[in-house]
Amino acid sequence: TFGATDAPLKGPQLEKDGLVQFPMVMGGIVPVINVDGIKPGDLVLDGPTLAKMFLGDIKSWDDPAIAKLNPSVKLPKQAIAVVHRSDGSGTTFNFTDYLVKVSPEWKDRVGSATSVQWPTGIGAKGNEGVANNVAQTKGSIGYVEYAYAKQNKLTYTRLINKDGKTVAPEMKSFQAAAASADWTSVPGYGVIITDQPGADTWPITTATWILMHKQPTDPAVAADALKFFAWAYVKGDKMAEDLDYIPMPENVVASVKKTWAAEIKDASGKPLFGM
Q: CB neighbours of 21 closer than 8 A, spacing ≥ 6?
């Protein structure tokens, strides 16, 4: 009846497959590390430095580029162990989309996709796999959804955003990333909100999208799904926040409901939303 993705489909694909796409919740992707003596939020990284670490060009934690960003942090002479996703994922899509935007070298050598040819490091399956590998490997760095970093008590880094401000991964910085996004500017609300402007913005923020057929094979089940999504938009904010995700802005929710009414119909052309 429906599916979910963290890597939105583009307009032509939606049209070809007869799909409607809309965002449900938002969250952040965070670099996580395992370095002795460094606590959550102690270390600051910027986009170009993060890219060089995942390219394998920065190989040690006491590299001058990291030290320059962290003059008051005692950095060990320890090899950096990169951990990345081994499976295709929306988390990888958004993480590499950010690296493309901040590093021409990353754009030329690797690019952005749900699965890429990683220049270095070891692969792990799922956010859980990356989180577990980082937790167990001294000197490691990986990337996970914020919820996994928090729930697994991993050491996250702060980041320098597009405005040159140092920010921590938290609800207000994820919300700041979404605040200036024009969600209706792209078919299927497929706006990528990495590297957004704003002093408080977390630079690797993303949404999760729902996919439904414009003419579902089981209209009754599809109508029930839409009722659930409508309920979740209205009543699910606290539950989303408890799971370390943030709800969509009210104006986006209103636009999504109009899309449901206009595009998701039964075989006779009757809208399913509101049945």
A: 8, 9, 14, 187, 188, 189, 190, 209, 210, 211
Amino acid at position 98, single letter: Y
Distance between alpha carbon 16 and the CA centroid of its chain, in Å? 26
Give tens-digit pLDDT for 24-58.
999 999 999 999 999 999 999 999 999 999 999 99
What are the phi and psi torsion angles at 99 (to 5°)?
-65, -35
Strands (E), 106-161: 122-124, 140-145, 155-156, 158-160
Q: What does 224-237 look like in DSSP terms, one character per residue?
A: HHHHHHHHHHHH-H
Residue 208, SS3 per DSSP: strand
Please tell me the distance from the alpha carbon of residue 226 to that of residue 241, in angstroms, as a whole number. Answer: 21
For the entire predicted model, the pTM comes to: 0.92
Strands (E) located in the chain: 2-5, 19-34, 44-45, 81-85, 122-124, 140-145, 155-156, 158-160, 166-167, 205-213, 246-247
Residue 34's contacts (CB-CB under 8 Å, 6 or more residues apart) are: 134, 135, 136, 137, 138, 139, 140, 141, 154, 155
- Write the DSSP symbol of residue 268: T
Structure tokens at 104: 């021409």
Instruction: Give the confidence band of 275 by pLDDT, cuts at 50, 70, 90.
Output: low
- The span from the CA of 44 to the CA of 27, in Å, is 20
